[in-house]
UniProtKB/TrEMBL annotation:
<keyword id="KW-0732">Signal</keyword>
<feature type="signal peptide">
    <location>
        <begin position="1"/>
        <end position="22"/>
    </location>
</feature>
<protein>
    <submittedName>
        <fullName>Conjugative transposon TraN protein</fullName>
    </submittedName>
</protein>
<dbReference type="Pfam" id="PF13595">
    <property type="entry name" value="DUF4138"/>
</dbReference>
<dbReference type="InterPro" id="IPR022298">
    <property type="entry name" value="Conjug_transposon_TraN"/>
</dbReference>
Length: 282
């Protein structure tokens, strides 16, 4: 009997805890969402300031696609099985998730056209909810904002620089944000020949080569760059973002810029771990 009352008390406590937790949950009600009215065979576009990562459409009567990464296109399909439908007709919700926000809309099917029915809807901050993921993931828009702020600051003495065949590469600044490293790099061309960029690559490798067969080199792929540099005619400046990496003092970070054939000029710039440790917090 005591066991029964103990289990009953435990169940009641669990129920109370779940009730209290539910009271703190925030929910979006369908009637509170902004309404988008759709007509038969009508196409509506949703323009996002960020790349769209996920879309959920409640109704099977609506088809959607992404013509480009930040533009969602939806269209209401005709339903030949309906004999005498009633209007307006609820079509459920549309959920759009970008890199650091989520936006939801209520979809309604209307029979009659109206002058205020939109064909293009821009996702505004008023109708979005932010996704708090700064500690794990940094969105492209956030990287761009940080990168542009770095470019606005006055350049100080170069951390490292190198010059080969009239092409110079200079590391202006190293910045860190969360688990990301931002590299502010300048390129210059003092020759009369345009430098057609083939690749910009980064490697963590041994400082000294004792035996060729023991040499270790690991490539780091840039997660993002502010500009896509295809040619260097005189001076260029760019921001590259890599995932934060830890390597011992006997290794170095090598930056390599290579030119397309036939000329094939190449320039290397080596950055020590000491330079990485001295990075500025952004």
């Amino acid at each position: 009997m005591k066991t029964f009352y103990s289990l009953l008390s435990l169940s009641l406590l669990s129920l109370i805890a779940l009730t209290l937790q539910a009271q703190h949950l925030t929910a979006s009600n369908l009637n509170d969402l902004p309404t988008v009215t759709l007509l038969n065979e009508n196409t509506v576009h949703f323009l996002s300031p960020q790349p769209i990562k996920y879309v959920d459409i409640s109704s099977q009567r609506i088809k959607g696609d992404l013509p480009v990464e930040n533009l969602l296109r939806i269209k209401l399909l005709l339903d030949s099985t309906e004999t005498s439908p009633t209007y307006p007709k609820e079509l459920g919700t549309l959920t759009i998730v970008a890199e650091d926000f989520i936006s939801q809309y209520r979809l309604v099917h209307s029979k009659q056209a109206a002058p205020n029915i939109p064909s293009l809807i821009e996702l505004s901050p008023d109708n979005t909810r932010s996704i708090d993921n700064w500690g794990e993931h940094l969105s492209v828009s956030s990287m761009r904002e940080i990168g542009l702020n770095m470019l606005k600051k006055r350049k100080h003495k170069a951390i490292q620089k190198s010059k080969e065949h009239g092409i110079a590469m200079q590391l202006n600044k190293i910045g860190t944000f969360s688990d990301y490293i931002f590299l502010d790099i300048s390129f210059s061309n003092s020759t009369n020949l345009v430098y057609n960029v083939d690749e910009f690559r980064l490697f963590i490798e041994d400082k000294k080569i004792i035996k060729a067969n023991n040499f270790q080199s690991t490539e780091l792929m840039p997660l993002w760059s502010l500009h896509e540099i295809k040619q260097i005619k005189n001076k260029q400046r760019n921001i590259y973002v890599i995932k934060k990496a830890v390597f011992p003092g006997n290794k170095t970070l090598r930056l390599t810029l290579s030119e397309k054939q036939i000329s094939g000029r190449m320039i290397d710039l080596k950055v020590s771990y000491k330079d990485i440790l001295s990075a500025e917090s952004l």
